[in-house]
Structure formats: C-alpha cells, structure tokens
Amino acid sequence: MESVLIKTHGLTKRYGSVSVVKGLDLEVKSGEIFGFLGPNGAGKTTTIKMLTGLLDPSEGEALICNYDISKQPAQAKSLMAYVPDQPKLYGKLSAREFLHLISALYRVPKDVVKERAEQLLNLFGLQERADELLEGYSHSMRQKVVLASALIHQPKVILLDEPTVGLDPGSARLLKDVLQEMARQGAAVFVSTHILEIAERMCHRVGILKDGLLIAQGSPEELRQKVGREGESLEDIFLELTGSHENAELIKSLEEG
Amino acid sequence: MKILLPPPLESPPQEQSFWQNFILLLRNQLQVSWNKLRHRPARALIGMGGLLIGVIAIVVSLGIYAYGSLRTLSPDTVQGFLSMLFMVGLGGQIFFGITGAFVALYMSDDLELLFMAPVPIKAVFAVKSVVIIGSNFLTAVLFAFLPGLFYGLLFQAGASFYILVLLVGLGLWAMGTAIAELINLLVMRVIPPHRSKEAIGFIGALGGIIIALSFQLPNMLMNSRNKFDLGSWLEQQKQMLSVMKFFPWGWGSSALVAGVSQNFLGGLGWSLLILLVGVLLFLIAFNLVEKGFRRGFISLSQGERGKRRKAQTEERGVKLQKAPSLAMLKQDVAAPASPWLGMWAVAKKDLLSMKRDTREWFGYLVPLIIMLFFIGQFLFSSVKTSHSTLMTVLIMYTIMFSGNMALQSFGREGESDWLLNSVPLAGWPVVWGKLLAAILPTLVLMEVLLVGTALAIGVSKTLIVALAVGAVFLSLGSSSIGLFYSINNCRYNPDTPQQRIAPGASLFMYLINLFFILLLAVGLTYLFLPSELVSALRDLPAVTYKGGLLSGLIYGIYLLSRPLLWSTAWRVFLGVIVTGGIWAAMFFGFMAATVRQSRKGFRVEIIAGRKKRSR
C-alpha cells in the first residue's frame, strides 16, 4: 500500500510582515519522486528547511513518516536524510571518518557501518581519497560525500536541494539512478531543482512554487492538460505557469529579428 | 552499473540517552581538533611553541616581580591584589570567551548538519559549550588558577589550601565563560551574518593589540624599576581594593586568604559560593543560548546572508519593478569611453572594498598605534630622542607603510581575478587605478600623522611643508615598488583574507624599499647639507682607486661625497637632479614593469589551509 511519507498542511513561513511560504499543502507518497520547482526566491529552500526541522514554521505543520517534525523531531529526523545545495562538512575530517560519524549520529548498528561505508565510498568513486581531509575536496566530491552520508542510514525520506549543481554528467546520472532505486524500494524522494529536463525525466510528480504559493502540482502529463498545451515540454509549462513566457517570447523574437 | 542499496527503515532506531549523544559529539569534536593539530604545518607548531615559551617567560617574570613585592604587604592589601588579578582574569575570559562563543556558535559550519541529525539539540549545545570553555582555558589558568597556586607557595600553605584554589578557579572559569556566552547572545543579534567574519577579525585584532601590549609589561617594569614600586602603589589603593570584596573576584580572594590563615571552613564557604554562582550563571547562559537557537531568537536562517532584510527589501521593491524588456540588446553599440573612467572604476572598487570591510581598517590602525608609541616615547621617556630622529623614523615608516599597503592591492581581487584580466583595461588603467586606491587613504593618514606630529613637537613651518610634499613623492615611489611585487606574488586565503602576499616577496619589497631610501638619501644629502659630515670630509685625505672591489667601493663613496664640498648652487642643482632622477627611475620603472605584467595577465594564488589550490 502506498503510504504518505511527506505531508504538509498550511505550512507558512513569515519574516516580519513578509510571507515567504504561504499555506503550503502537499503530499509525497512512498515510492514517489517529487520535483519541487520554482523561480529564484520562490521559497523552495525555505520549504525544505521547514521540512527538515532547520526552520520553525510560522504556521501549519510538516509530517515526516507521520511524525510531526516540530513535536517529534528525533523520530522524524532518524527516518530522513537531507542533501543541501551547499554542503558544509567538517573540513578536518576525512570522508571515511565523516561517514562513520553520520552512522553513529543516526544510530546505525556498529557491525554494518564499516561494510556499508565502504560500499557507498565505492559507489560514488571516493575510495581512493577516502582518508584525505574533506577540506581538500572539490565541490562535486563534497556533494558525493553528502550523498553517501545521506544513504548510510537507509532513510525512508530523502530531501535534496539542487543536488545536481556542480556534478559532472556521469555523477548526475549516478545520482538519478540512486534516487530511482530508492523510490523503487519504497522511499519518498523530494527534489528541488532548476533543471527542468531532469525533473521531467525523473520525477513522477512535480509541484511548482511561485512567490511562496504552490500554483500547480501533478505529473508532467497532468500539468500539460491543465495549461492546455499537449506535447509541450515541462520547461514551456513552467514558463507559462510562472509568467516567465514573456521573456521566452522576447528572446525568440530577438533570435528571429 | 547495478546499484545495490539496503531497503529503507520501517521504524526509527532505538533512541540514545543524552549522555551517549554527548559523548558521541564530544568524541567527534576531539577528532576534528586532533586532525586540525595533526595537519598543521611544522612551522606553525614551532611558532605556537615559541609563543607558549614567551607567555611562560612573561608569567614567570611578572610572578616573581609581583609576589616579591607582596611579601612585605599587609594581608588586606594582598587580598586586594588577588581580587584585582581575578578581576582582570574575568575580564580576559569574557573578552576571549566572546570570541570563542562567536566562532563556536555563530560562525560554525556544522550546526545545520547537527540540527538535522536525530540527536537532542541540548547535546549539541553542551558540546559547543565545552568548546567555549576550552577557549578560555589559558586565561583561566593564568588568572584564576596560577595566582592561587603562587599565593599558596608564597605563604607555604598546606595541601587542603589547593582544594580551595581548585574550587575558586573552577568558579571563576565557569563565571567568565557564562558571562561571555550571554554577551555573545546579544552580539549575535546585533552583528549581521554577512559581517561575522569582519567582527571576528575586529575582536582578533583587538586581542592582538592587548597581547602585544602585555608583552611590553616586563620591559616597562624593568625600565621603571626605580620609579614604580608595586607594594607602595597597592598600599595607596587600599580603599579601592577593599571595595572589591563585594564582587565575585573579591569572594575568590577572601577564600584564599581564609585558607592561608588556617580558616579552611571559612575559605570553603567562599569558594563554594563562587563555584555555585559560576555554575548557576553557566546553566542560565547554556539554556538561553539553546532556547535562542531553538525558538528563533538566533536562528540558522540568520546565517544565510541576512535573509530577513533581503525579504523586506524585496517587498518594497515589488512596486518599482517594470516588465522585463530585452530591447536594450537591440541598441546600437556605443563608442568606448575614456580609459580614465576605467582607471577610476578600478580605484573606486578598491576604495569601497576597503571602506566596507572592517578588516582592512586594521592595516591602518597598526601604524597609528606604532606612531603613538614613538610619540609617547619621545614625550614621556627618560631617554630623550631628538626631533630629527623622531621625524626620520616617521618618514621611514611612511615609506614602508605605503609599500606594504600597495602590496595588498592585487591580492584583494581574490577569486575574482578573472574580472580585471578579462575586461579591456589591462595595462595602465588597472595599474594606475590600483595605485590611486592604495595611495589615497595611505597618504591622507600619513600626511595627518607626519604634519600633526611635526606640529606637536614644534618643528619649523618650512620643514613641515617639506615633509608634507616629500611624503607624497615617497609614498608614490614605495607604492609603485609594492604594486610590482603585489602583481607578481599575490595570493588569497579565504579563511584569512588579510594574507595577500607571499612572505618572500614581502621581504624583497622591504629590501628594495630600503635600497630606494638609501639612494634617495644620497640626493637629499646634497640638498640638505649635514655640517658634521662636511667638516669630517674636509679632514679626509684624497682617495685613489688601487684596483679590487673594496678599493672601488671606497673610491665610489669618495666620489659621491665630493659634491658636498662644491658651491651651494652646483650642489643643490646636482641634488635636485639626483633625487628627482632616482625617484623617477624607481617610480616609473616599477610602474612600467607592473603595467607590462598587467597586460600579460596576473593570477591570484588561492591558498586553502596548507594546500595551494590551482585553478
């Protein structure tokens, strides 16, 4: 049975009198990859931070595996993983040490930690440099370390903020395969991205956020029907819904003239 | 590739106790600290060792001096002295504790990661508090534990006395750290997140000045041994010292005095009181910090480049936004503007960067402090120096300071070096822009200092004008040398953005500047005739070249000295030619070389930790 693993109800974040996220209602089910789209400043990162418990919502609630992130944070967090867009890691730890730390924090049994850490290091091609300090790693290698650490405790829910930024095509493909495998095994994957092509190919459903409001959600096909543009790409639908199509038409007219 | 992943968890794992989480996080913190120490370059460790030896030497010398004076004093005065030491120590702990707390909490990179983990936030802050307490360790040892230890040794106290020393020390340590954490809570609210690195630079620089001044204390005490008697000074301050009994630092000294006077129970009462207050304050601070983060008084979102202010600005800006238009892309190409505008743009960019980054200001604070030190010595020291010596020192410093400020110029580009390399301004607009930005603030500061000092010590008006004009030329000359070394040896360390030059290049720049001063001195000697030298020259026998390097050198100096005996008109004429020629050759020569390098392109070497990052 498909169960709802991420659920928000009236989720709102205000800074002073400015509302950054306005009454967000969404659901992500087990086995689903949900693409969270929106222009810059739409409130995507704020939403993810509320879902992960890094920010307290001004109103509403967020449930992870039926645990309220504000009231039962330890239970919710232990079933969830978060991959931020700018991975801040301990520069003075090696990749291997970092994976062992995360395993301990997420209470992974000691007898499986070593084997699983080696498997993940191998999967992301980090084994050769696993004992080097993270401060010497490039952005894409740090991103891979964060991804490995996000998988080590078998999360039921994974939230990713712009995960493909800085990754080479091979690594981006690997990430896509990993996320699809996770979904196949019943996890809920929540991806915030700007790359609409990835969203179109990978996500089962997408949600479009504009000025803090969820203006549309559904599968790419459902969205096409909604705007009445059958056969068009998700990019066109996104531009249509976020009101950026004027720009696209202007560019087109410039190209022609 | 076949991806094998274990299936997701169905239920949360069993929870761990607070203690288990605390130990886990503490072990991680220790691992990070150990790795930091292990990967430090050997020269940094040697430097730290040297600094430690210096600190121990100062503590021992001050200890011997202070406790030697205490033998003859009344118990009340000794108690007051101990109170004073504890008070200074508490002040030091608050100062360094604020820095420690700021770094451990506000500038911490791992809070987001730890807040995401299924560990109680209390355990995270408990470990952070341990880190902050650790940052106060040295201050607590120097000003809370050692005074008590020395005091016990001085009065040959029994073993039980040292229990009181331990309790008082721990109490003062907890109290200092707690007050620092509480003040830091306000600091974190006041300082916007994007200026946090500047704030820490400011506190660090202030700490550096305090430490540098404290390193002068033994020297000052040795110089004024006959004038300053600590014992009699303390006797005069009896009333002020007695007031200290009402404050926690006074309780600490009361405990130790009671302990030494065989009143252990009395001492125990005082020391338990101070420990209790310390622990209580610490618990209050810990809870407030934890609640501050949890309830949003200090939120993680504040660490994201001032989101609150940005959000408000956006709302205000909504009404002003126009519909996007790409019509400008269709406009005709405008004729290029004058390169002078480009030069000014480069200068303005650097000046704004200097204005907006408070860390840049410390570069200008150092000469102010050094000059104040010289002027202070001139006005108050028993060893009198002449006006000319003081002015020579100031001129020398003007030259070195100008060179040093110019040395920072190209490193300031940091990771944005691609910009000045890619715009069509390479060559003189960039280099003259950099020169202008380097020299303007330097010149204003140096002119004010030179002229101000000259007026303060009563130098003639003619000399003041000569100094003011001379400083402009000297600054330009040495800045051009600095710029040349800057463009060829610039580097950037994101962690310590002030380090913008390779140390070897910095040394070379100083040597070339000294050579520049030496050459200028020849021309200036022709202009301003030193009468003592002339009378000595008249008595010298004629020198001839007899072959060999040494003879050649002596003959060369002899020839250089001959114009000093010429008639005034010829001598001044030659002086103007030599001084102007040397200045022009150095200034335009180094500027031309810098312009050539700018046209070839320059690269800022990025230093990350101990590794050099190539791009």
From TrEMBL, chain A:
<keyword id="KW-0547">Nucleotide-binding</keyword>
<dbReference type="InterPro" id="IPR003439">
    <property type="entry name" value="ABC_transporter-like_ATP-bd"/>
</dbReference>
<protein>
    <submittedName>
        <fullName>ABC-type transporter ATP-binding protein EcsA</fullName>
    </submittedName>
</protein>
<dbReference type="GO" id="GO:0016887">
    <property type="term" value="F:ATP hydrolysis activity"/>
</dbReference>
<dbReference type="GO" id="GO:0005524">
    <property type="term" value="F:ATP binding"/>
</dbReference>
<dbReference type="InterPro" id="IPR027417">
    <property type="entry name" value="P-loop_NTPase"/>
</dbReference>
<dbReference type="Pfam" id="PF00005">
    <property type="entry name" value="ABC_tran"/>
</dbReference>
<dbReference type="InterPro" id="IPR051782">
    <property type="entry name" value="ABC_Transporter_VariousFunc"/>
</dbReference>
<dbReference type="InterPro" id="IPR003593">
    <property type="entry name" value="AAA+_ATPase"/>
</dbReference>
<keyword id="KW-0067">ATP-binding</keyword>
<keyword id="KW-0813">Transport</keyword>
<feature type="domain" description="ABC transporter">
    <location>
        <begin position="6"/>
        <end position="236"/>
    </location>
</feature>
TrEMBL record, chain B:
<feature type="transmembrane region" description="Helical">
    <location>
        <begin position="161"/>
        <end position="187"/>
    </location>
</feature>
<feature type="transmembrane region" description="Helical">
    <location>
        <begin position="464"/>
        <end position="487"/>
    </location>
</feature>
<feature type="transmembrane region" description="Helical">
    <location>
        <begin position="540"/>
        <end position="560"/>
    </location>
</feature>
<feature type="transmembrane region" description="Helical">
    <location>
        <begin position="272"/>
        <end position="289"/>
    </location>
</feature>
<dbReference type="InterPro" id="IPR031599">
    <property type="entry name" value="ABC_tran_2"/>
</dbReference>
<feature type="transmembrane region" description="Helical">
    <location>
        <begin position="361"/>
        <end position="380"/>
    </location>
</feature>
<feature type="transmembrane region" description="Helical">
    <location>
        <begin position="431"/>
        <end position="457"/>
    </location>
</feature>
<feature type="transmembrane region" description="Helical">
    <location>
        <begin position="129"/>
        <end position="155"/>
    </location>
</feature>
<feature type="transmembrane region" description="Helical">
    <location>
        <begin position="572"/>
        <end position="593"/>
    </location>
</feature>
<keyword id="KW-1133">Transmembrane helix</keyword>
<feature type="transmembrane region" description="Helical">
    <location>
        <begin position="80"/>
        <end position="108"/>
    </location>
</feature>
<feature type="transmembrane region" description="Helical">
    <location>
        <begin position="392"/>
        <end position="411"/>
    </location>
</feature>
<protein>
    <submittedName>
        <fullName>Uncharacterized protein</fullName>
    </submittedName>
</protein>
<keyword id="KW-0812">Transmembrane</keyword>
<dbReference type="Pfam" id="PF16949">
    <property type="entry name" value="ABC_tran_2"/>
</dbReference>
<feature type="transmembrane region" description="Helical">
    <location>
        <begin position="199"/>
        <end position="217"/>
    </location>
</feature>
<keyword id="KW-0472">Membrane</keyword>
<feature type="transmembrane region" description="Helical">
    <location>
        <begin position="507"/>
        <end position="528"/>
    </location>
</feature>
<feature type="transmembrane region" description="Helical">
    <location>
        <begin position="44"/>
        <end position="68"/>
    </location>
</feature>
